[in-house]
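Sync notes, pocket subgroup
Present: LS, DG
LS reminded everyone that the earlier model was apo-only. Rerun requested with manganese (II) ion included. Inputs:
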Amino acid sequence: MQTFFENEKHTLGRRQFIGTSLLLLAATALKASPINHLFSDAAEGPFVQKPLGYSFDALEPYIDKLTMEIHFTKHHTGYIKNLNKAVEDTAAKNMDIYQILEKVSTFSPAIRNNAGGHFNHEFFWKQLSPEKTEASSKLNRAIEEQFKDLTNLKKQVTDSAMKVFGSGWVWLYVNNESKLAISTTPNQDNPLMDIADHKGEPILGIDVWEHAYYLKHQNKRVDYLNAIWNVIDWTEVSKRYKEALR
Ligand code: MN
């Protein structure tokens, strides 16, 4: 009996020691890497996922919480994981995302799909907001010049998005004549890629993959497209427009 208790005491002591050590290790890891610990699944490599900046339910009722959560934690995280795997032992490993996109034709399809997937989603999250925002006067003038007014721009973006066959994106971008234009790309391609039919600086991108809307809108892509204008961050789009003109 005596021996049993002594052994038990000894074991508990060791367990406590191991437990405390693990806690200390975890605390050190959290302190060293505040972003990585949140999205540790995607952190094995040069590309990491930035925090969303608002809660998953912040865009309700226009984009529902479950769609946001799955889209961010499964789809976007997946692209980052696969991108980190795909760049291993390639020249892309030491490039930033813009450098990869502008010579994406020289890399594997896995790099093209996942570099696009990572860039496009980070770009998408950042241009959404629960706040009411307005386009700058500079962007408004450009919209009026190119599309008559904002209503007509929205209509043309929606019409283009409806014509995307299968999965892809619709873009508002600044072309090489510094004019606003609309284009669409298949899969996870974008206007920054050297293989894009219409190249330029994107300022607004809408994900028209079914995973972006199917849970709430099922097959009704147009309902999603009509809803998303309520949560576009025009302050961010205006900032991008200003930068694209430099
Ligand atoms: Mn998506």
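DG: The chain has three domains: 1-30, 62-126, 137-244.
LS: Confidence is low (pLDDT under 50) at residues 1-40.
Action: DG to write up.
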